[in-house]
Amino acid sequence: MEFNQTPTACPKCGSQELGRGKQNGYAVMSPVSKVRFGSAVEYLLCTDCGYIIESYVKNPEKFKGTL
Ligand SMILES: [Zn+2]
Known about the structure:
Layout: E1 18-23, E2 41-46, E3 52-57
Antiparallel strand pairs: 1-2, 2-3
The structure holds zinc ion.
């Protein structure tokens, strides 16, 4: 089984012009019970139509135990 599930084309418009974006600073996602910590969010998005294909939290381990 290959560990290569990164999309190479936009599922909405079919464009292969994808890019990576990052959300940092004010707009970080924070664990609900640990508001002092935040984690940047990274996106894989289509640079033609703007559709966000995937989003990742950079430090998912920070969110353990918050549910
Ligand atoms: Zn697109």
